[in-house]
Amino acid sequence: FVEPKFRVGPVLDIYPNLPEHGIAWSMEVNVGWQTAGRQYWNQGLRFPQVGIIAAITELGNPDIMGREYSLVPNLAYRFVQSGIFELRGFIGIGFSWFNKPYDRISNPENLFIGSRLTNKTILGLNADFSLTSRLSLSSGMAYLHYSNGHNQLPNVGVNIPAIHLGARYYIRGAPEKLVVNDTMEKYSKRWLLNIRHGLGVHEFGDPAKPVGGPKYPIYNGSVYLSKRLGAIINLHAGLHLNYYTSFYDYLAFHGLHEQDRHMKSLTVIGFGGLEFLLGHFAFTTQMGFYLYNPTYREIQSTGEESNKFKENAKNYLSYKFGAQYYLFQTRYSTRFNPWIGLFLKSN
């Protein structure tokens, strides 16, 4: 199918001294397909629609904020179907390119985004009304979020609650039938041990400053247990460690904790999460709680954070989401299955 949409909504003020901005609007085209049961995960997700969005968004201030161009793989999950009406939940995770990010000389007012390339995440609801076997109209609401994960400051982030109108045209008509397999394989419910090692990068500072600093590597690893809850869902629970070289340099610069500086540069997070398995691919979301985060809390205690709720949340809560590619099909509960992935971590 081909699905053009028009979105409109305000850019939220979530930080002081942001540039003036009006209403953002975007034109997008979603090209995708309606799954019909040919792959095992189709039935497990109640036959979702899968596609990729190409979009252009004006961000409410052409001179300072400019526009973004994005490509966003997405999945729409049906909650309700009654006659010609369908209600679908919608999630998309992809990348955006900004034509006017922050620049200390040519564009110093744009505190929203400091890099050209960012993550773009869309969450929303679509209400679809079928007119014919090939054509349907849609409307709904969505929340759009842009961030580079503190990879380059400033990174206040762009947040847009939006409404949309669109239409969907099935090139060969909607599927005549959905293949339902009543003998789907029983999956092993045993707990599996998982080990993950990763490398991250960020600039050290607040969301808006200091700009132009070095990129610090972050070495991290996780040990966690996973258990299959069904054909397409994996439950995670475990520990995640980060070693921040930026914390070490901060402590060294201020002459702090010389005897245990390496330990103070660590953070430890206990987390739980869900992994959605789609063939070789998987999408993971994890919520964590800081069990050990001494340097960040020490830095925060010396600042002038006015929002105590936000300060406490950033001290204790961590969120991570991303995508993985497994060497072997996730259809089977394989004891050994290497993977690579890309994640965004947020406090």
What is the radius of gyration? 22 Å
Which consecutive residue ranges, at least 5 long each, have pLDDT under 50? none
N→C terminal distance:
37 Å
Q: Residue share in helices? A: 10-25%
Order of helices and strands: EEHEEEEEEEEEHHEEHHEE
* Rounded mean pLDDT score: 91
Number of helices: 5
Structural class category: mainly beta
Largest sheet: 8 strands, antiparallel, barrel
Q: Please state the overall shape, judged from the principal axes of the Cα atoms.
A: flat
Number of strand elements = 15
- Record the strand order, biggest sheet: 1-2-3-4-5-6-7-8
Provide structural commentary.
This protein has helices spanning 40-44, 245-253, 261-264, 294-301, 308-316; strands at residues 2-10, 23-34, 49-58, 67-82, 85-98, 117-130, 135-147, 158-169, 191-203, 215-228, 233-244, 266-278, 281-292, 317-326, 339-346. The chain is built from five helices and 15 strands. The two termini are 37 Å apart. A hairpin with an 8-residue loop joins strand 3 and strand 4 (67-82).
Topology:
Layout: E1 2-10, E2 23-34, H1 40-44, E3 49-58, E4 67-82, E5 85-98, E6 117-130, E7 135-147, E8 158-169, E9 191-203, E10 215-228, E11 233-244, H2 245-253, H3 261-264, E12 266-278, E13 281-292, H4 294-301, H5 308-316, E14 317-326, E15 339-346
Antiparallel strand pairs: 1-2, 1-8, 2-3, 3-4, 4-5, 5-6, 6-7, 7-8, 9-10, 10-11, 11-12, 12-13, 13-14, 14-15
Index terms:
single chain; mainly beta; eight-stranded antiparallel β-barrel; 10% helix
